[in-house]
Design a protein that fits this description.
Keywords: Heme, Iron, Metal-binding, Monooxygenase, Oxidoreductase. With 414 residues, this protein is of the alpha+beta class. It contains 18 helices and eleven strands. It has a single domain, classed as Cytochrome p450 (Orthogonal Bundle), CATH 1.10.630.
Length: 414
Amino acid sequence: MSLPDPIRLYGPGYKRDPYPLYERMRAAGPIHRVSFPSGVTAWLVTGHAAAQRTLADPRLGKNHALGNDRWRENASIMPEPQHSQLQVHLLHQDAPKHTAMRRLITDAFAPRRVEELRPRFQEMADALVDAMPADAGSVDLVRCFAARFPFQVLAEVIGLPPHLADRFRRDWGKVVAPVGPTDPGRPAYETRLHELQGYIAEVVADRRAAPGDGLLSRLVTARDAGELTQEELDSMIFQLLVAGQEPVTNQITTAVVALLRQPEALERLRAEPALLPAAVEELLRLDSAFELTTWRFLAEDADLHGTRVPAGDSVIVSLCAANRDPERFPDPDTLDLDRAQGSHMAFGHGSHFCPGATLARIELQVALGTLTARLPGLRLAVPDEELPWIPAVLGRGVGELPVAFDRPACPYRG
């Protein structure tokens, strides 16, 4: 069958502000064929109601084995034979395997447990602010805070010991960005991949030799008991280390940028810290770090929102477009701290709803509460248009966030 020409979902202008394009796409219909810089094409779902139906549609599976040859030709992220070793995690599984694997991690992210850790998270956030140079003129909030706080929290939650946490390199997270076999950056990509695989092997060996009661130790025990294969264990650790902290880093940046663009909202949040939970929900809705979901596939040709989608073509959902659907959220482009909270989709929907959503919410409350309370006069140190939005396919955030502020205040105790 003849397929429509795809809409490009890449480029600096798109990454800086994709919302005008999403608005036009929503107005034209719920599903569109799109393309990414790696050459991958997909069917993108945009509206809120359509997104919810898609993410709960039992016809759509997550296992990459469902992808057709056209998708597989361009979509391979990791070179063989490494491809299988880090790609059989929760995001690429369907029931019953997904259900069994997810059950192994839910206790670690249980709401009561992570809430009990809030004071510890606050200590971490305060220590990072204390370490910021007060007389430097400006600091990169990503390097000094946003890229460090979520990883420290994650290490605490999953039981990654300090001697291993100190050696983790954020640069390894770049292996989630597709790099084609002829791309000049391929050698550096493969170096990162092999280093990350070696690091994961060290984590497994360490937790096997000195087991504790943390999540990583429990996963290693599950592997030894035959509940996981070695590839599944490595993949789950990979997912925890990358997906468990990088999106929160990016969400801190999108939230801070939104607040700096609305100084009155920033000042109100500083004056009324009780607004933090509602503010976090609104900031998640306004500009989600999870811009797009990962791939889903139909096992056979089928109708999806009035469009015939071939079997094995990838289907993705724009969570950002769903979260600014005016049919669900009046005046959706406005940051409204008094907005009646509703079903935003920043953490997805359905069986693949983010298992760490409660943890992420607490992290964001602590992070934004600390930054707004302890950095009076917080402001951008460069023009807004110079902020470097990351070129990631699925995520949103800025790679650097230069800010200036007045002398840090005493530790936040809200």
